[in-house]
Amino acid sequence: MIEIHNVQKSFNGNQVLKGITCTFETGKCNLLLGGSGTGKSVLLQCIVGLMQPDIGSITYDGSVFTNNKVQIRQEIRRKIGMLFQGSALFDSMTVYENIEFPLKMLTPEMTREERRDRVEFCLKRVGLENAGNKMPAEISGGMKKRVGIARAIAPNCTYLFCDEPNSGLDPLTSLKIDELIHEITHEYNITTAIITHDMNSVIEIGDHIIFLHKGQKLWDGTKEEILNAQVPELKEFIFSSSLVRAAKKVDDESEGGLAAITEGESTSA
Ligand SMILES: Nc1ncnc2c1ncn2[C@@H]1O[C@H](COP(=O)(O)OP(=O)(O)OP(=O)(O)O)[C@@H](O)[C@H]1O
């Protein structure tokens, strides 16, 4: 579990994070939801140590991360896997080499054969067992995300951070990437945090959702609870989604629209 307590961050007098307190639960997809400019990326950067909060604390499974000794921060960092928005693969390396890269960096004690077994396992787990020799330029956006996921989990990460994993993908590919992240999270009991403003993802994989608005946490709960949340800013955000509006229309006209979605029946599409 990652515990975030009263995290504040300002830039030149502009307070971007106004005292965020929340938890990312173990073995769950924790979604950081909110509109543009609400501070999701800044919060994520503070959590992984790319940025220092002005005030507040971040604790990983009981180990304090903020302002702790370099060695302890490095130990925590080694357990973090990142899936970047644009996948951020190394263009000059093959898919195999991209996935092997963090193993070489983080686990120098592994033999070449052990690395090969791990890379092949991860490639298989993300459904790319035949793509190891391809270059990033030769594969689709969805495949690149899969490689990014394989690279993130290769060193057996305990924590997985995904920055808008669906950006640039068509709806069906987005759904498959969401499902893959969700499966891996539950299978390996990873604490996963996902930045998103996609209501589809909320409905598909939102085990725990944290809604940010103007640098504040206004609500958190599950995907089953979110449609009944009585927070005006959250309601406005939810019903700005055309998917939810369409489902509500069905709900109003008959039975089962929104309920059907929250029960996951939309995945059959
Ligand atoms: N390094 C920085 N220096 C100054 N201001 C920054 C910096 N990083 C972020 N900001 C500001 O912080 C605010 C929140 O930005 P952030 O990127 O966290 O939003 P977001 O919720 O992730 O938005 P989006 O969904 O559009 O990516 C913005 O006003 C942004 O301009």
UniProtKB/TrEMBL annotation:
Keyword line: ATP-binding, Nucleotide-binding, Transport
Protein name: ATP-binding cassette domain-containing protein
PROSITE patterns for the chain: ABC_TRANSPORTER_1 (PS00211), ABC_TRANSPORTER_2 (PS50893)
Cross-referenced InterPro entries: AAA+_ATPase, ABC_transporter-like_ATP-bd, ABC_transporter-like_CS, P-loop_NTPase
Domain ABC transporter: 2-239
The species this protein was found in: Hymenobacter qilianensis
Keyword Transport: yes
PANTHER family to which the protein is assigned, alphabetical: INTERMEMBRANE PHOSPHOLIPID TRANSPORT SYSTEM ATP-BINDING PROTEIN MLAF, PROTEIN TRIGALACTOSYLDIACYLGLYCEROL 3, CHLOROPLASTIC
GO molecular function: ATP binding; ATP hydrolysis activity
Pfam families: ABC_tran (PF00005)
